[in-house]
Amino acid sequence: MAAAPAAAPTRAAVSSSSSGVTFCSGTSRPSLRAAAASASAPGWRRRGPAVSVAASSAQSAPGALAVDSNKNQVDTLLDTVKWDSKGLAVAIAQNVDTGAILMQGFVNREALAKTISTRKATFFSRSRSSLWTKGETSMNFINVHDIFLDCDRDSIIYLGKPDGPTCHTGAETCYYTSVYDALQGSKPSEDMQVTTTLYSLEDTISRRQEETVTEGKPSWTKKLLLDAQLLCSKIREEAGELIQTLLENEDRSRAASEMADLLYHAMVLLRVKGVKMEEVLEILRKRFSQSGIEEKASRNKS
User: How many C-beta neighbours within 10 Å does residue 255 have?
Assistant: First the structure.
């Protein structure tokens, strides 16, 4: 497999330095470490019990009660929050599918209680001294799927799905200014985002599709984008090599390497089809509380 050169992502990570992402077949195996090193990865991985306010699954419909409890139980939970001298705590909204940090605000008891009951991200405006629900004017609500308190109980995460752009500028997130880019004299771009490794890779593939080949050879990604038969053959090849790691009991690093190959080529196919990774992750999230047998049966009926 030839190399897939990577430039600085359009939705930039915190660091503006760029690294190549190479995918090879043969003795030299591929790695996504370069992409991981250049991409910030907000979000979390469940390793043990988390302090979660919402007891229902991530598939629960926004608007429903977030917890199966009465007002006294909610009040008891709110009592555990370490409100500051003004009765406030920091609240951060994070995209449940992409992991992107959307915005940061402040909440008081009433704002957090309203968010728990309505599943719409609600904050406290210090300038107006009143509650405000994100989207009440723009209709770009943040639909909350879960709420997390940190270990000190003095900051909060609203994990949710935005209906549209979060920032008042029209950007998807309020965080689009890279400090390192600014230090190098680059102007902020509303198209930039703090992205995870997958989204940095998705951006690179997207830019390869848009590039015009004038001199020299096209990048490997560009070749795949232009040749459906080549792309399909590589996906079949990489899927077979991943299967081989199990059948031949190869070490875990080889399995990870082959999965990186398969994922990269599959993402190129998604780009050709116009499918975003966010759409795939959303489908996976919605299947969390559904058995594989039930999900397959529902597909057969439709």
Answer: 15
